[in-house]
Amino acid sequence: MTLDILNDKAMNLLKDLELLKLVRVRRQTSTDKELKKDLIAKYKGAMTPQNKDEIDCQLQDLRNEWE
User: Fold this and answer.
1) Phi/psi zone of residue 34: left (φ > 0), alpha (ψ -120 to 50 degrees), beta?
2) What range does the domain containing 5 cover?
3) 64 found inside a domain
4) Which region, left, alpha or beta, applies to residue 45 given φ > 0 means left and ψ of -120 to 50 means alpha?
5) What is the pLDDT of residues 31-46, one digit of tens each?
6) Do residues 39 and 30 make contact, with C-beta atoms less than 8 angstroms apart?
């Protein structure tokens, strides 16, 4: 679950709930930019380079399977 804090009063309420041991507030350590870099690193090289004609042929084959 992700919460966007729009007002400082909301953060104070969350802190109070945490003191009552009803919720736990954790700060997200990585930014969206870092997450994007992680995904790029994870999938980099997952596809082998192909020329345009091979890709077009594969796409056409996939489309024909649906007909």
Assistant:
1) alpha
2) 1-45
3) no
4) left
5) 667 777 777 777 777 7
6) no
Within a domain: residue 7?
A: yes
Helical H segments across the chain, by residue range: 8-19, 32-43, 52-65
Query: Using the 8-state DSSP alphabet, how is residue 22 labeled?
Result: S
Tokens encoding 21: 């041991």
Please give the angle made by the CA atoms of 36, 41 and 43, to the nearest 5 degrees. Answer: 95
- Note the pLDDT of residue 30: 61
Q: Show the tokens assigned to 40.
A: 């790029």
pLDDT, tens digit (0-9, with 9 covering 90-100), for 3-30: 888 888 998 999 999 999 999 888 766 6
**Token duo for residue 31:** 């930014």
Would you say residue 38 lies in a domain?
Answer: yes
Long-range Cβ contact pairs of 8-17 (< 8 A, separation 24 or more): none
pTM of the model: 0.40
